[in-house]
Amino acid sequence: MSPAREELVLFALVLLSLGLFAWGMLELTWTRAGRAAAGAALPHSPRRRYPARTAAAEQPPVPTVVPPLKVAPPADSPRMSLSELLDQIDYLADLPLRALVLLRRADAELANAPADTARADTLHRRLGVARIDVGCRLVAAGMAEQALVPLSQAVRGNGLAPEDLQRARETLVAALGTITEQRAQTIRRIAQEGNQTSAVGHAERLAALLRGALDNGLTESELSGALATAQRLFAHLGVRRMVRAR
What we know:
By secondary structure, the protein is mainly α. Among the domains are: 79-160, no CATH class; 165-246, no CATH class.
């Protein structure tokens, strides 16, 4: 190659190098300027400052205690007369336990009622019939123990119609028979568990119950079944005892 052509090629390479350098500087300058302009165009959002956490802030909130409302108690229900109580007892035919509660109130009212009057005699008879009705309902519902008091009162009472008195006696005998059987089974189980003294004590209380029924007017013939059960129980416990009226 001639010297003139070599100089020409060298000059072209120098120009190319200068052009590339100038393009690189222009690209770098434009990129920085563009980023600065873009940052200036964005809105400035202030930095949020959060309050410092304290020990009090970490405590759980204390619930607000609201005092209960004070409600006045209901006024006492008006006191019912003996006649009204007897009407309520008749109404509660399917609820013998509630009727039994009213029956006790009726007994208290009768004790405070004036005696030796025609109205008092009528109320007394009504109360006697109510005792029988409540006692029969209790026995039919399987609550023979609860029926003992009203039926015993009816058997001791006077002025009842013969058919009512007979119904009271028969129901009381049935109740005593059921109670004797149930208690005898329990007493035998207590004795089998080794509590002989406790079993004899329960047997004595059963005998006292039957003696009380005899003292109230029931006969040994009427209570023959219950008395026989009691005698077998004492024999099972090894105790010689005859259950008789005083």
